[in-house]
Every structure is written in structure tokens, then in C-alpha cells.
Design goal:
202 residues, Rossmann fold, 7 helices
Length: 202
């Protein structure tokens, strides 16, 4: 697949590494593409040439990115963000169970096929999911059935066990799951080298 990634920070670079390892073509969409980096282009151009786009910026940048991409009309948009901010209790989510960041993004891009995934673990695991003996799980939420098949296959190709979590409103559960990983891995002493797996009885 041809994949555009908006955001060239830790998450964006980790996903690019994993996707290229899986045989996909990756282009970074940037507001100010660097001519020294041949894999960078403008946002609209990157989106136009892609089968799917991954939003890997801070959540607060989503509205600006959606505007630059002219609403992602008819396109697959994978939301890898989490609506994080410093609260009175420290780092936390700014949205809860009544709405998710993914649903807010879908409201800004109503003609896009929006999916929530690649948000539930650290960038270290996104870059190197195959390093685990048991594949880490990565849930996928979204409403468009035909595009979901494509997104699930994309997630599988990066080394995760891709699991359909249901419609996009299930992102209300997946964003708190990301917060749990952050609380344990970044704040709770686990470190980044742990992942959540899905096990079934024999």
C-alpha cells in the first residue's frame, strides 16, 4: 500500500519503519517539507497519492491538518493520536466516555473514513512489534466495513495482532487503554519494553 504519515516525530517515524519493513511505500506529509528529505512532501500532495493516511501529530493539530488535506474526502484516515493534556492530576485524557478524540476528528472530516488504531502503545513497540514472543494486540475501531479490511491488514503487516474493536465510538475505550499503557510505561516504572497481548483459552 501507499501510506501517507502526517507527523514525523517518534510515532510517525516508528510507524514508517514498521510499514516499510512490511513492504509498504511511505511518504511524510508536512506543512513545510524539507527538500533534503525526499520522502517528505506537502500534506495535500501526500494524501492525494496515498491509499491511507495516518495522523501521527499531537491531537491539537488535527483540525489544521484536516483543513490542509481538504477534509480527507472519500479517503481512509487513521487516527493514531490521543487527546492528552496536563490536568490537575498530571498527564491525562481531555475527553472521556461520552466522546473520543477520534469521533471529534470524524466530525471535522465527515466525508472521510476514519479509524482509530496505532494509538494504544508506545512508539518503541510500533517500531518493533515482532520483537515480542507473543504478538502485541492492536485494536481497530471504525465504521466503514470495506475500508476496515484494508486497515486491519495494514496493522497486521506491522507485526501486531489486529483486532476489530467495532465501530468508531469504541475509540472511547481505546484512548483510555492508551492512557493505561502510558501510566504504566512512562509514569509507572514499567518502561517502554512491555506490550499488551490478547490470549485465549486453549
Amino acid at each position: 500500500m501507499k501510506v501517507a504519515i502526517i507527523g514525523s516525530g517518534n510515532v510517525g517515524r516508528a510507524l514508517a519503519q514498521a510499514l516499510r519493513r512490511g513492504g509498504h511505500s511511505v511518504t511524510f506529509g508536512s506543512r513545510r517539507p524539507d527538500p533534503a528529505h525526499p520522502d517528505e512532501t506537502g500534506i495535500a500532495e501526500a494524501v492525494a497519492g496515498a491509499d491511507a493516511t495516518i495522523l501521527a501529530t499531537p491531537f491539537a493539530a488535527a483540525a489544521e491538518i484536516i483543513a490542509a488535506a481538504e477534509g480527507f474526502v472519500g479517503r481512509v484516515l487513521i487516527d493514531a493520536t490521543n487527546p492528552l493534556a496536563i490536568t490537575q492530576h498530571g498527564l491525562g485524557l481531555t475527553m472521556g466516555h461520552s466522546i473520543s478524540g477520534a469521533e471529534a476528528i470524524a466530525a471535522l472530516a465527515p466525508s472521510a473514513h476514519v479509524f482509530k488504531t496505532f494509538n494504544q502503545t508506545g512508539f518503541e513497540n510500533m517500531a518493533d512489534a515482532p520483537a515480542y514472543r507473543a504478538r502485541p494486540v492492536m485494536f481497530v475501531a471504525g465504521d466503514d466495513a470495506a475500508s476496515k479490511v484494508q486497515v486491519l491488514a495494514l496493522v497486521e503487516s506491522t507485526g501486531f495482532e489486529a483486532v476489530d474493536a467495532g465501530p468508531l465510538r469504541a475509540a472511547r475505550l481505546l484512548e483510555p487503554l492508551a492512557m493505561l499503557w502510558i501510566a504504566l510505561g512512562r509514569l509507572g516504572g514499567f518502561g517502554p519494553d512491555f506490550a499488551i497481548t490478547l490470549q485465549r483459552k486453549a
